[in-house]
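User: Please predict structures.

Assistant: First:
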Amino acid sequence: MPVFVIISGGLILSRARDQPIAAFYRKRLLRVCVPLLFWSAAYTAYSRIQFGTSYTQLTHRLIMGVPYYHLWFLFALAGLYLAAPYLVRLLDALTRPQQWTAMAGGYLLFALHEAVLAVLGIAGYDAFALWLPYVPYFIFGGWLIASPVGGRRVGWAVALAGSIAVIATATGALLPLIGTSRSLNLMYGYLNPFVALSSVAIVALAQSARIGPGLTAMVARFAPFTLGIYLIHPLWLGITASYGFTPLAPGVGTPAVGIIVVSLVVFLLSYASCFVFKVIPGGRHLVT
């Protein structure tokens, strides 16, 4: 998920700099708030109908910014969009070394905070503060537009593979010491240094990749509905699972093959759903 925050920073901060604050909010913030409100209501109703989730639990989830497990990203993104015009003006008032110091210092503080919460098993931020830990990623994304990270692809590939190996190994070592939940939260938390390094490596590899015209056309076809696919896919995961279509279902193949097959089917169903929303009056604002 840090990859998407980095990309969002790259796309948004430059626009926040070039537009008056009021115009930026009218154009950009509403694009997040409309789907946030709609999908929060939709998934709240889905949780109530499908799983019988109590109203107390539903209210608590809304306050914490997770009406459904993936919707925290919209709450965080809304906060980042709200702060973007002021962040970019603050950055413009600082020298580049001062910007690096502020970003690195903020990241270290938030990373330490996340690690402490994970070890103690304490819940983190609520809906109004979910965006704060991701400000360093957001700022870093803004820099990438003007100054791509560069470097050799082999080096970034090694960094990515090494980060994944460290995360997996450390998780296994921590399991008997602090338990499954805390180990996963600590090592797979979005502010874990190795998660941060792997995210930067992914962005760097994407920037240096040579993409042919065929792949470029494919990416251009799916790109407008990236948000919609992300928002809709849990519904199709639940629907397909209710009919027994899971990675472990008979006839799907090995679990590894099953994961690929189910992921592809859910992706295509979510993509098709975006087209349905597109033809409904006003529906495109919920998926793009």
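Second:
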Amino acid sequence: MSQEMHKKVLEKVILSVDLIRQLFQGMSSAVKEWRDRIDKMNYYPVPDADTGKNLAKTIYAASEAAEKGKFRSPKQLIDKLEDSLLETCPGNMGAIMSEWLTSFLLSLRDQKVISPKTLAKAFEAAAKSAQVALGNPKQGTALDPINSSSQAASKHADQKDLNHSMKAILAQARIALEDTTKKLRELLIEKGVVDLNKIDQLEQEKAVDAGALGFVIVLEALLEGIREVSNEQTTIPV
């Protein structure tokens, strides 16, 4: 039998309370690990070195809410997470991530599974909400990987393999993150930064937008969490 015949397709993952809890644990741990590095990339819109901290506070509070409560269904847990995310969302990135995660979860609230199609709908809803939260959205910010991941999810919505879809989503988000380096100069000059030597140095160091980095870190943990749970669920041979 050929190697192709041994490949397996993951069509869907069952949405459960345990899965959602694991996703938030993973996202919280990832952001905590990257918090200081995200803060160091905090050049735009204000170099206040708090993007990582605000992101960590937002997701940690939601993760704690998920752990402490007793929930009989994913719907109950998602309702609780919606409250937590809207209550604890400090700073610009906290607000953006709160809106993104809330809309992502609400889109899945009445679904029984995560599949390429339901995932695409969740990414689309989340991207729209995040754009509203940004107020005056600019290219070269978190909006770039948010939109790129949504577009990739939509493009692969009819895929049978959820793993393939998730890989494509993450790949496009990472490309968008890397591209924020090219857009940093324009954003900083528009903001009034006149030290061109400093801007040149940031470009040479391949500095990226802090919010975009934070989003991709969350996205990596989210998709990896789904992938890990998928290993425990049934796969369909082709």
